[in-house]
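Design request, tokens follow.
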């Protein structure tokens, strides 16, 4: 019986596997426990992505939920260790990115779901956009200050890695300078383990996605793509 047939997707076994992997991050251990990964992490996440597709299309027809096990929304568990001092071969979280349909051709906002024993969350927006995309967002904020201020009353931004000085070409005394200094335009919704394991989690996820729509719309407009 699938997770969707019993009403939920993620379970205590999902978190149990990820916790065990954190303590035993080796190829030998993973290979010996791969069945647990497939049953409690990968398959439930792919089912979640499949079920999320119709719900996300109601929010925006341009958000893509691709349930393919490789090359789709689901992130591989294997870490890229080529340029990292940490050579642990596996991620100790599971995640999926629901990209904008224009995302491969041009920068655009998307949703990201992160499931981890440490913290589970939904994020929406643009993380680490390139310099051209950042400039477009900042120019849009300056051009539409009233809309941005109204949006910010409802949505908190992650302030990770903000610039210490005003970005080049922008007034250091601009009333929105703190937002113009941001290097990421992302907001998030935190979930408890109980919420993630609940049969109502899809509804919670959709609710979270809807709450971030004002930010997603603004960023889509800045990038010149349809929401």
């Amino acid at each position: 019986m699938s997770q969707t047939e019993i009403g939920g997707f993620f379970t205590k076994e999902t978190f149990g596997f990820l916790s065990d992997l954190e303590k035993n991050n080796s190829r030998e251990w993973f290979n010996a426990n791969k069945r647990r990964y497939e049953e409690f992490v990968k398959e439930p996440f792919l089912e979640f992505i499949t079920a999320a597709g119709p719900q996300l299309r109601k929010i925006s027809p341009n958000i893509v939920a691709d349930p393919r096990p490789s090359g789709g929304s689901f992130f591989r568990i294997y870490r890229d260790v080529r340029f990292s001092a940490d050579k642990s071969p596996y991620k100790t979280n599971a995640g999926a990115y629901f990209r904008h349909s224009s995302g491969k051709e041009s920068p655009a906002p998307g949703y990201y779901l992160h499931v981890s024993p440490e913290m589970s969350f939904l994020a929406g927006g643009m993380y680490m956009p390139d310099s051209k995309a950042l400039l477009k967002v900042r120019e849009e904020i300056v051009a539409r200050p009233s809309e941005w201020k109204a949006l910010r009353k409802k949505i908190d931004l992650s302030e990770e890695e903000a610039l210490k000085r005003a970005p080049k070409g922008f007034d250091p005394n601009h009333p929105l300078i703190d937002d113009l200094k941001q290097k990421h335009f992302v907001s998030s919704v935190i979930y408890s383990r109980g919420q993630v394991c609940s049969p109502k989690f899809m509804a919670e996820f959709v609710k979270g996605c809807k709450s971030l729509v004002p930010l997603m719309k603004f960023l889509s407009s800045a990038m010149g793509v349809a929401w």
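Comment from the thread starter after seeing the answer: thanks! The chain has nine helices and four strands.
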